[in-house]
Amino acid sequence: MTLDICTQIYIKDLADFAVKEIYKLPDKYRKIAICIFIEELSERETAERLLISKSTVHKRKMKIQKILQEILKNGEQL
After folding, report:
1. What is the C-alpha to C-alpha distance for residues 9 and 3, in angstroms, rounded to an integer?
2. Using an 8 Å Cβ cutoff, are 62 and 36 in contact?
3. What's the CA dihedral at 68, 70, 75, 78 to 10 degrees?
4. Which tens digit of pLDDT belongs to each residue from 17-74?
5. What is the residue-wise DSSP string for 57-77?
6. Which of 19, 21, 34, 60 has the greatest number of CB atoms lying within 10 Å of its CB?
7. Which of 67, 15, 56 is nearest to 32 (CA)?
């Protein structure tokens, strides 16, 4: 499926916005967000890299997703 140019631009702008917001997160969330959403590591790989439990990574990932959803929903910035 090929997306039209306007949709492609919108998706890129949204991704750029999300990355900017990720870098504004508190350190304990930012490190996980970078590993998972930017570097595309698994929760296990992220836990190993950051020397924290997989459970902690999972819980923080869920919190990060909530934070980013709220930012997008409200049009806010951290």
Report:
1. 10
2. no
3. -60
4. 889 999 999 999 999 999 999 999 999 999 999 999 999 999 999 999 999 999 888 8
5. HHHHHHHHHHHHHHHHHHT--
6. 60
7. 56
